[in-house]
Amino acid sequence: MFPPGAGPAADPAGDRHERTIRSFQPRRSRVTHAQREALLRWWPHRGLEIDGGSRIDPAELFGGLPVVLEIGFGMGEATAEMAAADPGTGILAVDVHTPGQGNLLRLAEEAALTNVRVANGDAMILLREMLPPAALAGVRVFFPDPWPKKRHHKRRLIQPEFVELAASRMAPGAVLHCATDWEPYARWMREVLDASPSFVNAAPGGPDGFAPRPQDRPRTRFERQGIAKGHVVRDLRYRRR
Ligand SMILES: C[S@@+](CC[C@H](N)C(=O)[O-])C[C@H]1O[C@@H](n2cnc3c(N)ncnc32)[C@H](O)[C@@H]1O
Question: Ligand 1 pocket check: which of 71, 98, 178 to mutate, most ligand atoms within 8 Å of Cβ?
């Protein structure tokens, strides 16, 4: 798809990691001309491969700014908007979806954002193998794939193992912010996070004990689709102890 070495790799961790249960589905959607151009221009400067081998120092990556990890940014509209509104925070945005990576780099270029880096690959590998302890000022997971069928629940990203891994990479006081329009997943997230010894519910004051919708979270594509289907959107904000 790209000249050698120019764009994001198809499977950056490759054989280094056995294929365990993954929370994403490989998608082969088309990369538009504008996305491809943005990838060719910006991937060498703003792209990071999640190869499971190299180490990342988030503070160094953003010249000492506090760093928030966003997992599964999709097309990146919310990422770019939040980065523009908060230039004092570095956003390490991770997804496996090439068109979305191109789109986010395009949006970052248009808005002249210098506080966004795009990581390609599985966030689990990034957290487990590449990030140092207590390095993150926050983690965002907006509208993760809900995996509604029971036999697929094991593929949900929010699981005790993920939550403790994320906690270990977050500084004390850092907030894990999740949002979903899938009510059973919202309840599942609450159960997992309430049971975690590493987190405390930082905003239980919204509807049904969830967080009030934060003003700083823009509507994402998946959120708009969920609302159009009549789904209720839930936010969860849990603070690292
Ligand atoms: C349902 S989409 C939501 C996208 C976006 N946050 C939004 O609200 O429009 C979930 C995204 O998470 C990504 N994803 C799921 N598991 C992931 C993982 N382990 N590492 C990186 N990205 C992941 C998928 O590729 C997909 O783009």
Answer: 71
- State how far the Cα of 80 lies from the Cα of 94, in Å rounded to an integer: 13
Strands of the 136-142 sheet, one edge to the other: 47-49, 116-120, 90-95, 67-71, 136-142, 170-180, 234-240, 199-201
Mean pLDDT, the chain, rounded, equals 94
The pLDDT tens digits of the residues spanning 144-197 come to 999 999 999 999 999 999 999 999 999 999 999 999 999 999 999 999 999 999
Among the listed residues 11, 86, 145, 194, the single catalytic one is: 145
The matching CATH number, chosen from 3.40.50.1820, 3.40.50.150, 1.10.150.120, 3.40.50.300, for 36-240 is: 3.40.50.150
| Alpha carbon distance 155, 122 (integer Å) | 13
- DSSP state string for 12-66: TTGGGS-----SS----PPPPHHHHHHHHHHHHHHEEE--SSS---HHHHTTT--
Question: Per the annotation, does 77 bind a ligand?
Answer: no
Whether residue 145 lies in the annotated active site? yes
pTM > 0.90: yes or no? yes
Mutate to test the pocket of ligand 1, among 28, 51, 73, 178 (most ligand atoms within 8 A of CB): 73
Residue ranges covered by each domain of the chain = 36-240
pLDDT digits (tens, 9 = 90+) for 70-94: 999 999 999 999 999 999 999 999 9
Helix residue ranges per DSSP H, 86-220: 98-110, 123-125, 160-169, 183-195
